[in-house]
Design goal:
There is one protein chain. The chain folds into two domains: 2-77, TATA-Binding Protein, CATH 3.30.310.10; 86-240, Ribonuclease H-like superfamily/Ribonuclease H (Nucleotidyltransferase, domain 5, 2-Layer Sandwich), CATH 3.30.420. It has helices at 12-21, 60-77, 111-120, 130-141, 153-163, 166-185, 221-244, 256-275, 283-292; strands at 2-6, 25-26, 34-39, 44-48, 52-56, 86-92, 101-108, 145-151, 189-193, 210-214. The strands form two sheets. It has a five-stranded antiparallel beta sheet with strand order 1-5-4-3-2, covered by helices on one side. Helix content is 46%, strand content 19%. The protein is globular, with a radius of gyration of 21 Å. The chain has nine helices and ten strands. It starts with a strand and ends with a helix. The mean pLDDT is 89. The relative contact order is 0.14.
Amino acid sequence: MNKVLQLTAQQLPSVRGSLQAAGFATAATLPAGAIFLLRGHDCVVTAYRSGKILIQGTGALEAEALVRQAIGHESAQNEGEVLFPVVGGDESGKGDLFGPLVVAAFAAGTVIDRQAVVEAGARDCKLMSDEEVLRVAKRVAQIGRSAVRVLMPDEYNAAYARSRNVNILLNGLYARLLADLAAEVKAQTVILDKYGPRALTLWEDVRPFRFIVETHAERYPEVAAASVLARAAFLHGLGKVGLENGYGILPKGSSRETQSYMRKVAHERGEKGLRMVAKMNFAPIRDCLHDLFP
């Protein structure tokens, strides 16, 4: 498969940095007119002086997503209304049946910090493997200040029982986490990935920073960094809760395979055992418990 993109010369350094951070290797020999050629596991990306990007191979779609993510970061860096320091926020685990709910915030003090985040390979964690998430999270943690809040399943279930709505629960977690980090770094801008309409009303009082809520806000490097940190914390939490309760590695997501494993846990340990490893508000869990314990 071949993909061709037309970029500007100013965007090429960000693209190159992002691909290298994702594990692409630089080729020593270049075709005529090329300024760099990077080889991934199953694709090749060639950039030309004209700004054209040629992506070849079976992994072209994934590489194109990386390039577009880098372009988004470049665009976000050039937006004059975003003043530094900037704090970004994102969550992980909301759609995972097992494991914790995690919210994370990351602060870039300067445009230099922002560029370092891009070069570290931070982007929407849904485009990354677990191994890459863990690797990039270590890099990001060394760049700027960050904060992470992890709700393990037992704590999550107790909190959900009080709020009865996961977005209300997220509002409470974000309101404290983002406000505290923003105050610590004296943020001028706070950016949050939109998780529902309630995100727009996170605070009722006036705050001393510009508050931006957008869908796909991972185009901002600070939100991408928070996305990576949140997913890394989720993966650690998922592994921890599985080992502590004698299950080993618990499945991610909420697929049929995950639901099948959930029914196995419910059959062996009952509601009490399930409560220690899973989010009890998920409809498949409620249906399963109703079937097993009518």
